[in-house]
Design goal:
Shape: elongated
Largest sheet: 6 strands, antiparallel
Helix content: 10-25%
Distance between the termini: 37 Å
Number of domains: 2
Strand content: 35-45%
Mean pLDDT: 93
Radius of gyration: 21 Å
Number of strands: 14
Number of helices: 2
Low-confidence stretches: none
C-alpha cells in the first residue's frame, strides 16, 4: 500500500483522502483531550482489579513452568517467596496495570458519538471496559488507527500514536502450597491459566 503505483491509483488516492480527513479529526480531538480536566478522565495509571486479560483466562490451580519470585505487592521490591518450577500454586486473583488509551467515538451506540472514551482492560470475547463520561462500561471493542468504514467493529479511532501506547502489566496474586502468598508480573511462567486450552 505504500508503493508509488498504489498511492497514485484510484483506490490509493481515496485511501489517502480518507486518512487526511481522519488525521484532521484526530488533531481536533487531541486538542480537546489536552483540555479535558482530570475529573473527566480515568486515573493516568489505571488498575483493573480482578481482571484476567485474555480469552478463557482463569484463576485457580496453576502449574509453575519457571522458578518465579513473589513480591509483597504489585510493584514492590520486598521478596516474600518463590514459586518453584514443576510445582503447583493457587492463583488467587490479579490486576492489570495500564495507561488508558483515548479513542474518539465515531458511531453512536453504547458510547456517545463525537466524545472521547478511554479503553481500559480487555475482558475476553472481543469485549472490554471503557471509561466514558465518569463511568466504566463494558462494550465490544472496535477501534483502530483508521476507521474507513464506521461500524460496530470499528466505532472509534485511537488518539495516540503507536509509540505512545504503553503495554499493560498483569500482576497475579498466588498462594504457594506452604501458605505463603505473593505477587508476580511473570504470568508467562505459569501454565493451566487458559480454560480453553
Amino acid at each position: 500500500m505504500g508503493s508509488p503505483p498504489f498511492k497514485t491509483s484510484t483506490v490509493g488516492i481515496k485511501i489517502e483522502r480518507l486518512k487526511a480527513v481522519s488525521d484532521e479529526r484526530r488533531a481536533r480531538f487531541r486538542k480537546a483531550l489536552n483540555a479535558l480536566p482530570a475529573s473527566r478522565r480515568p486515573p493516568e495509571n489505571y488498575i483493573a482489579k480482578g481482571a484476567c486479560p485474555f480469552e478463557c483466562c482463569r484463576y485457580g490451580d496453576w502449574t509453575v513452568l519457571e522458578d518465579t519470585d513473589l513480591f509483597a505487592a504489585p510493584g514492590a521490591s520486598r521478596l516474600v517467596g518463590r514459586a518453584q518450577k514443576e510445582t503447583r500454586v493457587w492463583a488467587v486473583t490479579g490486576e492489570v496495570h495500564l495507561k488508558p488509551e483515548p479513542v474518539v467515538v465515531l458511531m453512536a451506540g453504547d458510547l456517545p458519538k463525537n466524545t472521547i472514551a478511554f479503553v481500559l482492560d480487555y475482558g475476553g470475547e472481543g469485549s472490554g471496559e471503557v471509561y466514558t463520561q465518569g463511568k466504566v462500561v463494558s462494550v465490544l471493542l472496535g477501534y483502530a488507527e483508521y476507521c474507513f468504514r464506521v461500524s460496530s467493529t470499528c466505532w472509534g479511532e485511537t488518539l495516540l500514536p503507536s509509540d505512545a501506547r504503553k503495554e499493560q502489566v498483569w500482576w497475579v496474586k498466588v498462594r504457594l502450597s506452604d501458605g505463603a502468598v505473593g505477587w508476580t508480573d511473570k504470568a508467562d511462567n505459569f501454565g493451566n491459566k487458559d480454560a480453553c486450552g
